[in-house]
């Protein structure tokens, strides 16, 4: 089970990318996002976000145990969650998706309140919660940008 947790938490070992694994995980999230958008059902999109959160809490906790480290860098399923939240339910163009990606990376690194505090929660919950908040901030910023520049950012 520990190996499965590491596989899931690292998003198929993407988290082992030697340079900027969080950015690599955020890019990997775009494949899941494309699938979710292809399905085209808002309830499915929201269900995937909830499922990624729940599975991520389990996998991140298991990976901490397996590797014997708190919040190991190989865990990137939290970046997948944050990207899915950032782009959720918005009819975005490629430009809008790129802006969402950049906003999420910014908020994930800066970790404005309460994201940094949530990071201290125990186990996988803390790993997932701070990126969920960063995703929410990114979503709100992206939504504002879409409202201001719809012709550039929407499909």
Keywords:
0% strand, 155 residues, 8 helices
State the gist of this model.
It is built from eight helices and no strands. By secondary structure, the chain is mainly α.
Radius of gyration: 15 Å
Give the N-terminus to C-terminus distance in angstroms. Answer: 41 Å
Helix content: over 70%
SS-based class = mainly alpha
Sketch the major β-sheet.
none
Average of per-residue pLDDT values? 95
Total domain modules: 1
- The run of helices and strands is HHHHHHHH
What fraction of residues sit in β-strands? Answer: under 5%
- The count of strands amounts to 0
- The poorly predicted ranges are none
Overall geometric form = globular
Q: How many alpha or pi helices?
A: 8
SSE topology:
Blueprint: H1 2-9, H2 21-39, H3 42-67, H4 77-87, H5 94-110, H6 115-118, H7 123-148, H8 150-153
Helix pairs in contact: 1-3, 2-4, 3-4, 3-7, 4-5, 4-7, 5-7
């Amino acid at each position: 089970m520990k190996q499965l947790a590491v596989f899931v938490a690292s998003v198929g070992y993407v988290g082992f990318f030697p340079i900027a694994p969080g950015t690599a995980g955020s890019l990997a999230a775009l494949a899941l996002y494309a699938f979710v958008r292809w399905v085209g059902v808002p309830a499915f999109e929201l269900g995937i976000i909830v499922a990624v959160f729940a599975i991520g809490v389990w996998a991140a906790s298991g990976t901490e145990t397996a590797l014997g480290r708190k919040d190991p860098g190989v865990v990137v399923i939290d970046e997948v969650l944050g990207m899915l939240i950032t782009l959720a339910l918005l009819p975005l163009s490629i430009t809008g998706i790129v802006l969402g990606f950049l906003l999420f990376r910014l908020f994930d690194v800066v970790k404005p309140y309460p994201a940094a505090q949530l990071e201290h929660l125990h186990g996988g919950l803390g790993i997932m919660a701070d990126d969920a908040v960063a995703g929410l901030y990114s979503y709100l910023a992206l939504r504002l940008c879409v409202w201001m520049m719809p012709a550039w950012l929407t499909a």
